[in-house]
Design goal:
mainly alpha; elongated
């Protein structure tokens, strides 16, 4: 395992953020689409495992395979670009502007949503044999999840809304730690291990991930979940996206950048200076 020091991999984070700003529209959309599609498939896989085995922790342990696949293929999630792309602006990289960042975020959002929605339709189709039969236990489970994580929050009013927001922050704290963790090594196996742990944690704890929800809630509605698109957007997706942005940027990206790139001068202590003076005399 080749370990890379923090000051080196945080510079790689800034480089990655800059590269994503300059990426073409075609490449940004394709990479985001594939990321959303793969993560949606990983989510339904984890739910299927948890439902059939009765073990939520097993589903959480297996969910990171999707995250690992999309990361190794260099596909982009909104949660990741929330963390990386602003660093290029803070570092004053040439040509990186706020409008360029917003363009990247917007394209990744659209691509992620399209990919997740495509997987939702494919999975709902095969579970119901072309919408001709009941979706079974998996459909019932997903419908329940969708209702509890929209209408369940709505019951608590503004407190429920901020609960989703904080769950979104905690989610992208962990997910972004997985993104960053993969940069600490040049070994594929070490990258996988570093990604696995925080992603498993977020999934098992039920934190809110905007791209997983782009799959989960449309899938839930197709499978009979009794909530509306308005419920989904106001009482889940919007606060989740904002929470993911805050968590990735303020709990991962900025702290690492400020302490490993914008490092402050070392303190000069009196005893240390005296000892240096004694050594030089």
């Amino acid at each position: 395992m080749a370990y890379i020091e923090p000051n080196e991999f945080v510079t790689k984070m800034v480089d990655s953020g800059e590269q994503k700003v300059y990426m073409s529209t075609k490449d940004t959309i394709i990479r985001a689409f594939m990321a959303g599609a793969i993560l949606g498939l990983a989510a339904v896989f984890a739910i299927t495992v948890a439902t059939k085995t009765g073990s939520p922790i097993l589903g959480a342990c297996l969910f990171p395979v999707g995250f690992i696949m999309l990361y190794l293929m260099k596909f982009d999630l909104l949660t990741g670009v929330f963390t990386l792309v602003p660093l290029a602006l803070f570092d004053k990289r040439p040509g990186v502007t706020v409008s360029g960042i917003m363009r990247n975020w917007g394209l990744v959002f659209v691509g992620n949503f399209a990919g997740a929605l495509t997987t939702a339709f494919m999975m709902s189709f095969i579970l119901t044999y072309g919408y001709a039969t009941d979706g079974g236990a998996i459909a019932a489970k997903v419908a329940t999840i969708g209702e509890s994580r929209t209408l369940g929050y709505q019951e608590h009013g503004i407190g429920g809304w901020f609960t989703i927001f904080i769950r979104g922050m905690l989610c992208n704290w962990m997910v972004s730690m997985g993104v960053v963790g993969a940069m600490i090594s040049t070994s594929a196996g070490s990258k996988m291990a570093a990604m696995w742990m925080p992603v498993m944690l977020f999934f098992f704890m039920g934190f809110e991930h905007s791209i997983v929800n782009m799959f989960l809630f449309p899938f839930s509605m197709i499978m009979g979940g009794e909530f509306t698109v308005y419920d989904y957007l106001l009482w889940n997706e919007i606060p989740t996206v904002l929470g993911n942005l805050a968590g990735g940027l303020f709990l991962v990206g900025l702290p690492l950048y400020l302490t490993h790139v914008r490092t402050s001068p070392e303190r000069k202590l009196a005893k240390k200076e005296q000892k240096l003076a004694e050594l030089t005399t």
